[in-house]
Structures are given as structure tokens and as C-alpha cells.
Write a structure and sequence with these properties.
This protein is α+β, with helices and mostly antiparallel strands and 160 residues long. 25% of the residues lie in helices and 36% in strands. It is built from three helices and seven strands; from the N terminus they run H-E-H-E-E-H-E-E-E-E. Strands 1, 2, 3, 4, 5, 6 and 7 form a seven-stranded mixed beta sheet that branches. Helix 1 crosses helix 3. It is elongated, with a radius of gyration of 17 Å.
Length: 160
């Protein structure tokens, strides 16, 4: 049986392919550090020798929220959540929307994990963007997206 961590790795890889093109970071789990400055560092771009301002914050994480097996297949539910620093001067809302559109496209009908795990083809289909809103994250005004992804794989019959 495919493990949830194998599926998680495939989702993170798919996310990374999109997010890396816009300078964001992807975490394979929800990160938590007690102080805002430490948390902020996890979501700022990794650049050497430059000072990042708060508007460059851009990161995503993946959380496994359910595993539902039945006689034929296993369905997993995933929360994919992202943050991007707000910058009116740079029209950050439009950039965040573009990133979300690229993620939706990347997860629409695409198999994960060497074609063994599929993104759900029934309703809901592909990456579902459940909420986009402003929020304070790590002491920074950010855009936030809360997305849901359903994956499914078939259980191979047991060999006797």
C-alpha cells in the first residue's frame, strides 16, 4: 500500500515545480516556531547576501487531513496552504492569483507518484481553492490561500 508520506512527497514536488518559479518556498508539513521572526525566516526566499523585506515572504505547506480506505481504493485529503507578503506597490494580489491559477493547472488531472496515485477525477476535481483572504502571518500582512486536494489510489488484491 502506498504510504501517506509517499503521496505527500509527490504533492510537495508538484508544488515546488510551480512555487520555485516565483521565488517561494514549500514545506512538507505545517511549520511552527514560537517566535514570529523565526517563523518568518521559514517563509522568506533563500537568497544569499541580500536583505529580504517582508513583502517577499512567500511559502506553502502541506498537511494530511484524512485517509479513507474502502474495499477498492484509498482516498486521502490534503490541506495545501500558502502565504505571500502583501505589497500594494507590486500588485501582490494579482501575483498571488497568478500563482494560485498555476497551481490549479498543475494539479488538474495530473497523476502523482509515477502514475500510481491520481488527483480525484470526480467532483471535486483537482486542487480546490477554498478560501483566499488577507491575514497576519508571522507578524506580516499576507495573502493567504487555503486549498484542498483529494488523491486516490487503487488497492491491489492480496495474492494468496
Amino acid at each position: 500500500m502506498i504510504t501517506s508520506n509517499e503521496i505527500r512527497q509527490a504533492i510537495v514536488q508538484q508544488l515546488h515545480e510551480v512555487i520555485a518559479t516565483v521565488g517561494g518556498r514549500v514545506h512538507n508539513r505545517e511549520r511552527y516556531i514560537k517566535n514570529a521572526s523565526g517563523l518568518k525566516k521559514l517563509y522568506l526566499p533563500v537568497t544569499q547576501g541580500t536583505d529580504n523585506d517582508d513583502s517577499t515572504l512567500h511559502g506553502w505547506f502541506v498537511r494530511h487531513s484524512a485517509r479513507l480506505p474502502d474495499a477498492r481504493h484509498v482516498t486521502d485529503h490534503w490541506l495545501i496552504q500558502g502565504y505571500m507578503g502583501f505589497s500594494d506597490e507590486n500588485s501582490s494580489e494579482l501575483s498571488f492569483d497568478d500563482t494560485i491559477d498555476a497551481l490549479v493547472t498543475a494539479f488538474t488531472g495530473q497523476p502523482l507518484n509515477a502514475n500510481v496515485v491520481t488527483v480525484a477525477f470526480e467532483k471535486p476535481y483537482g486542487l480546490q481553492v477554498r478560501k483566499i483572504m488577507p491575514t497576519m502571518f508571522a507578524g506580516i500582512l499576507c495573502h493567504q490561500a487555503m486549498c484542498h486536494l483529494e488523491t486516490k489510489f487503487f488497492i491491489k488484491p492480496r495474492q494468496n
